[in-house]
Write a structure and sequence with these properties.
Strand content: 15-25%
Helix content: 25-40%
Largest sheet: 6 strands, mixed
Oligomer: single chain
Number of strands: 6
Number of helices: 9
Structural class: alpha/beta
Shape: globular
Radius of gyration: 17 Å
């Protein structure tokens, strides 16, 4: 990703509605659908500035992996220990068969060889271990945001399902989330394109709007995985090691 993305992440990840609500959505999804064992061994691949590590630490002993040096340093301060830096798909030095739960939250879309990445991740899971992935949805929504973030692709529900079906893991569940705000996001991106405005930057909205957006997105924590939501900005999937 561009340096500015990591800087914005470090500045906003504890205040911006998207980061705050997404953590709760993912936490509930893991608790309810992935169901890791008590004191699980947890790994987050592509942990960025570490804004998910405390949440994941609620499920057991959490480790992080991040390639960007500055982002990794922030993660290490938050985690209080070293964060790994092995790239996908190799994951050199990451122990095989070690983890009950591996998360990759908006990471795999950055990887040229996404099939190779999932094959490698599968080797790091314990038998019956769970992999939780989120990715941006809808290639037709490609924008400056994807360019700045160095995305290789956005996914459809079918392509994410095919990716996991083609891996050594077994797909347990797949679906959309961030669906309640999807019409607003589509309208905003269309208006930005008409104005010739780049939407690559992430900015903190005024406090009342930030709070309202967080409340709407957060409401999905009770629905994701339980009900098939309509198309949204993101997709999730849960897979199991065989």
């Amino acid at each position: 990703m561009e340096r500015v993305v990591y800087q914005q992440m470090a500045e906003l990840d504890d205040r911006h509605w998207w980061y705050r609500a997404r953590r709760r959505v993912i936490a509930d999804l893991i608790q309810r659908e992935a169901q890791p064992p008590a004191n699980a061994q947890v790994l987050e691949i592509g942990c960025g500035t570490g804004h998910n590590l405390a949440m994941l630490g609620g499920f057991g002993h959490v480790e992080g992996l991040e390639l960007d040096e500055e982002a990794r340093a922030i993660s290490e301060r938050r985690l209080g220990r070293k964060v790994m830096s092995s790239p996908l798909p190799e994951l050199a030095g990451v122990p095989n068969g070690h983890y009950d739960l591996i998360g990759a939250f908006d990471v795999i879309e950055h990887i040229d060889d996404d099939r190779g990445a999932l094959a490698s991740i599968a080797t790091k899971l314990k038998p019956e271990g769970r992999f939780v992935i989120t990715v941006p949805a809808h290639q037709w929504m490609w924008s400056a945001h994807d360019v700045v973030n160095h995305h290789k692709r956005r996914y459809s529900k079918a392509s994410l399902k095919a990716l996991i079906d083609g891996s050594p893991m077994k797909l347990l569940k797949v679906g959309y989330f961030n669906s309640l705000l999807f019409p607003l996001a589509v309208a905003e991106r269309a208006a930005s394109k008409l104005r010739g405005k780049s939407d690559g930057d992430v900015k903190l909205p005024p406090a009342p709007i930030n709070a309202a957006l967080e409340k709407i997105f957060n409401a999905e924590r009770y629905l994701v995985g339980r009900l098939p939501l309509p198309p949204g900005l993101s997709l999730f999937a849960i897979a199991s090691a065989t």
